[in-house]
Specification:
Mean pLDDT: 75
Distance between the termini: 140 Å
Largest sheet: none
Number of strands: 0
Helix content: 55-70%
Strand content: under 5%
């Protein structure tokens, strides 16, 4: 092919060269160098670059790979479980062996102690044995007497406590209307005399509180008669339209919820009216 191209070039057969070029590279153009009309540059075909290949996996291949990984994981888990069971078996065997050794040692110690005691008793005379038996019996009797005394003391104290609580309940029932509900917890004592004193104190304190509240309410009503419309309200119940007048019977009839809601204003009004006497007289 090269010899044919040289022969055509020597003859100056341009058409033959073009025909030869087309037969080799197709319709690619040829160019001649500037200044050298006798030379012809035949372009070469561009190199063919192979396209990168992408490896494709089918769904079956992907599932097979997943299953393979799962099998490896399951094998590892099973191996760890087997090792754990083996360790647990070893620990169980060790515990069983240790328990058996401890029981055997305890039995041996007990047998040795019994043998030693039998030997000691065999060496004692009849009088020594009788004296030791009497001492053991006396010790057991003393222990039993101590236990009985403790039980009797507990029963007696429990009986005293129940009697004292029953007496307290009777006092509260008798004087329940004379003691404010929130003062009943203060009725306490170690004997009946202390309970009587506590009840008397709570009755006096409740009466003092009720008297102070009644006086404060009466003063508030009397002061309100000469006050103009624009004057601020006065009285322990000035912000509660449901209690225009409050008497001792009203306070006694209050339930715990109502009294707790108004306790601060009631005690505050009583304190303002008789500050020099104190809250409880």
């Amino acid at each position: 092919m090269d010899k044919l191209a040289i022969a055509l070039l020597q003859r100056g057969d341009i058409k033959g060269l073009l025909a030869l070029h087309r037969s080799i590279v197709g319709d690619a153009t040829m160019s001649t160098p500037v200044g050298d009309p006798t030379s012809i540059v035949i372009p070469t075909a561009p190199p063919v670059v192979a396209a990168p290949t992408v490896q494709m996996f089918t769904a079956e291949q992907v599932e097979a790979a997943r299953q393979q990984e799962k099998d490896k994981l399951y094998e590892r888990i099973e191996a760890e479980a087997t090792a754990r069971r083996k360790l647990e078996d070893q620990m169980g065997a060790f515990t069983t062996d240790l328990t058996a050794r401890q029981e055997s040692q305890a039995a041996a110690e007990l047998a040795a102690a019994n043998a030693s005691e039998e030997k000691r008793l065999a060496e004692l005379s009849f009088g020594q044995k009788l004296e030791e038996y009497q001492q053991q019996t006396l010790s057991q009797v003393q222990t039993l007497q101590q236990q009985l005394a403790e039980r009797d003391a507990i029963l007696a104290k429990e009986r005293q406590f129940n009697e004292l609580m029953a007496y307290r309940g009777q006092l509260l029932e008798q004087h329940g209307n004379d003691i404010l509900p929130e003062l009943r917890d203060l009725v306490a004592g170690n004997n009946e005399a202390e309970l009587d004193s506590a009840v008397s104190a709570m009755v006096s304190r409740s009466a003092s509180i009720l008297q102070q509240v009644a006086s404060a309410t009466q003063s508030a009503r009397q002061g309100a008669r000469g006050v103009g419309v624009t004057a601020p309200p006065v009285g322990p119940m000035d912000n509660n339209s449901g209690y225009e007048t409050v008497s001792a019977d009203d306070i006694r009839g209050m339930d715990m919820t109502t009294y707790a809601q108004n306790r601060g204003r009631l005690l505050g009004a009583a304190s303002q009216q008789q500050r020099d006497r104190g809250m409880f007289g």
